[in-house]
Amino acid sequence: MTQTSQIVTGARSDQKANTTEIIEALVDDFFECHGDQLTGDDSAIIAGLATLNGQSVAIIATQKGNTLEERLATHFGSPEPAGYRKALRVMHLAEKLNFPIITLINTPGAYPGADAEAAGQGQMIAKNIREMLAITVPILTIIIGEAGSGGALALACSDQIWMLENSMYSILSPEGFAAIMWKDAHRADEAAELMRLTPEWLLKQHAIHRIIPDAWLRSPKLKQAIITELTQLSAQDTAERLQERQHFFRKF
């Protein structure tokens, strides 16, 4: 197994699948918000308000779940339009309350079902990207596992994007790449090498800002790093911070 394929395996580890447990380790008093105020609630997105070191924050995360029942309910961590609307609803609430936003991402991508597409999946992803680039409060994204395509980017248009050392951020899965390129999804390991989806490569290409150890995932070190980063971001001039955020994504 190559280093890249090891990273893919680590990104898909079941230890990263239950975002609820990660949220509980990072913040206090988490209050979850449900529903998109239009069509319903999507369990693939967890969103709500919490306190971090005494500061109020908003938390938005993708959720895969542990049991087969949970994973079927979340489409294995693939949100539908209602999930992205719920996420954006909480982002706008955080903006009104002047709360920084933290997003935790572990998703293979948006749910590709026909019903989701008919309900405006692409439009909702585009709307999230556009509006995140203009939200005035600080936004920090941490990619804890998979971060696939626009389904991940719709939650990652942030001031800072961090990746765990065993995580991946790509336009599509290695299996999808192999199926398109060679009509053979079994060549996923070879595809992963060609895609250069490792955190180190993405950092060199200035597609992310920082790599953090997997061991930090539920440790006080990650919590302290988040506190320090949000403090620094909050101290910046809002107009300058937004300009930097927008400039970063224009380079994509």
Walkthrough of the structure:
The chain has 252 residues and is an alpha/beta fold. The protein is 45% helix and 20% strand. Strands 1, 2, 3, 4, 5, 6, 7 and 8 form an 8-stranded mixed β-sheet that branches. Helix 7 (149-153) links the parallel strand 5 (139-148) and strand 6. Helix 4 packs parallel to helix 6 (121-132) and helix 8 (174-182) packs across helix 9 (188-195). The longest helix has 17 residues, at 81-97. It starts with a helix and ends with a helix. The model has no long low-confidence stretch (mean pLDDT 91).
Number of helices: 12
Encode the helix/strand succession as letters. HHEEEHHEHHEHEEHHHEHH
Based on CA atoms alone, the radius of gyration comes out at 17 Å
Structural class designation:
alpha/beta
Strands, total number: 8
How would a textbook summarize the main sheet? 8 strands, mixed
Which bin fits the share of residues in helices? Answer: 40-55%
Low-confidence stretches: none
Task: Give the terminus-to-terminus CA distance.
Answer: 30 Å
Work out the strand percent. 15-25%
Overall geometry comes to globular
What is the residue-averaged pLDDT?
A: 91
